[in-house]
Design brief:
- The protein is 46% helix and 26% strand.
- The chain is α/β, with parallel strands linked by helices.
- The strands form two sheets. Strands 1, 2, 4, 5, 7, 9, 11, 13, 15, 17, 19, 21 and 22 form a 13-stranded parallel beta sheet that branches. A nine-stranded parallel beta sheet has the order 3-6-8-10-12-14-16-18-20, with no helix packed on it.
- Strand 21, helix 2 and strand 22 form a beta-alpha-beta unit.
- Helix 5 packs across helix 8, helix 6 packs antiparallel against helix 7 and helix 8 crosses helix 10.
- It is elongated, with a radius of gyration of 39 Å.
- The relative contact order is 0.05.
């Protein structure tokens, strides 16, 4: 009977310890765990002058980061693939994501996750387990292609003959639809072609130059919406852009014209200071024999073409490069004599006679105002270049002939005096 009071105390102590242990366990379980570590970035790319190849039956474990002239994956890559190569071909299996930058990308194998391509031409005729994102010129989805998730393309042309399990979003030039899209499609294109066998099970929202409601209703399981506002904005933007380029030059373009004007005036002043004794002859060549002067300028273009061809075939390429640079400088400076001649004529109309520097300033202002006129300015620049080059060539030929004549007269023996009768 004496042990009975102790046993209830021990029982109560055991129950209390059990509750404390339970509360401590629950507290530890409820405590927030450490956040997961971020994924490691891909290793630095390996640059190889030889192509990267995974042969059939071969397995590469881990991420592949390569810069190579070509890449051919016929086996298995157990990881992500980061490739920069002009030509990429995947006929095997990639268990991770694929990131490609190149020219030609062909995927006829299986990529278990997503594909991101920045390439000129992309062709898919295999299976992609995630999404497909392409930016480039063309995207071709072949009849054997299956994209488990969505497709987003910003390309000049899209050709779709495969199966897309989720949505399709295209922005670009021409879309050719001949495959299946199991969800919605959003298309913004200049032209849309619908081929036999095309099917869109969700809704369609499209914007193109011509409405195609009836054609889309025949292949669509949901609603068809033509985005008139988007098309109107695009047409208005294209029209305004065209008009702005023609008649409303931007601040940047005006700044470029001003910079060229100032450079032309400074170079012109330097040339006039160095060759001021030739200026009257050049002015006379432009004013008195305009057609012959322009003809000489045109001949200089033919001579330049002949020199380039002969330099490539016979001489060395550095000589051709030096000649072209010199000729480009001459073409740029050809406007200087024409500007002086035009400035003198314009000032003469108001009865003013000035020096060559003022005439150069007035002439350049007049020429650059003409150069900024659409279409007409291009022909004006060509005519000014021909006249300027021709006048400089004509004065050079005349001066050389005069030097030869003077040298011939200096070297000729003096005439014998007549014999005395």
């Amino acid at each position: 009977m004496s042990d009975n009071p102790i046993r209830p105390r021990q029982a109560r102590l055991g129950v209390s310890l059990a509750w404390l242990l339970l509360i401590a366990t629950a507290t530890v379980a409820a405590a927030p765990s450490e956040p997961p570590a971020p994924p490691e970035p891909p290793s630095p790319p390996e640059i190889s002058v030889r192509g990267f190849t995974v042969r059939p039956g071969e397995t590469v474990r881990g991420n592949v980061v390569k810069i190579a002239p070509s890449a051919n994956i016929e086996g298995t890559v157990d990881g992500d693939v980061y490739l920069t190569s002009p030509s990429v071909r995947i006929t095997g299996v990639v268990t991770g994501d694929v990131f490609v930058a190149g020219s030609q990308v062909d995927i006829s194998g299986e990529v278990k996750k997503s594909v991101r391509c920045f390439a000129a031409n992309v062709s898919v005729d295999g299976t992609i387990g995630g999404t497909l994102l392409v930016t480039g010129a063309t995207l071709t989805i072949g009849p054997k292609a299956k994209i488990v998730e969505s497709v987003t393309a910003f390309t000049g042309q899209l050709t779709h003959h495969g199966t897309i399990n989720e949505s399709l979003e295209f922005t670009g030039g021409t879309a050719v639809l001949g495959g299946t899209v199991r969800e919605d499609a959003t298309l913004t294109a200049d032209a849309i072609e619908i081929e036999q066998g095309a099917k869109i099970q969700g809704d369609v929202s499209y914007s193109t130059r011509h409405r195609m409601d009836e054609a889309f209703k025949a292949i669509t399981g949901g609603d068809v919406t033509f985005d008139e506002e988007r098309e109107a904005k695009r047409s208005t933007k294209e029209k305004r852009s065209h008009e702005d380029r023609l008649f409303h030059p931007s601040t940047f373009s005006v700044g470029i014209w001003v910079a060229f004007f100032v450079a032309s005036y400074l170079f012109g002043c330097a040339l006039l200071a160095m060759f001021k004794h030739h200026e009257p002859r050049i002015d006379a060549a432009i004013g008195s024999d305009t057609l012959r002067t322009a003809g000489l300028g045109f001949v200089s273009i033919l001579v330049t073409i002949a020199v380039c061809l002969s330099g490539i075939l016979i001489l060395t390429l550095p000589f051709v490069a030096i000649y072209l640079i010199a000729y480009a400088v001459a073409v740029y400076l050809a406007k200087i004599p024409v500007a002086v001649w035009a400035g003198r004529r314009l000032l003469g109309l108001i009865g003013r006679t000035t020096g060559p520097f003022t005439a150069l300033l007035v002439g350049l202002i007049a020429l650059y105002l003409v150069f900024m006129i659409p279409i007409l300015g291009v022909f004006a620049q060509i005519a000014v270049a021909l006249l300027g080059l021709g006048s400089m060539i004509a004065v050079y030929i005349a001066q050389r002939q005069a030097r030869r004549a003077a040298a011939a007269m200096a070297s000729a023996p003096p005439e014998a005096p007549p014999a005395a009768s």
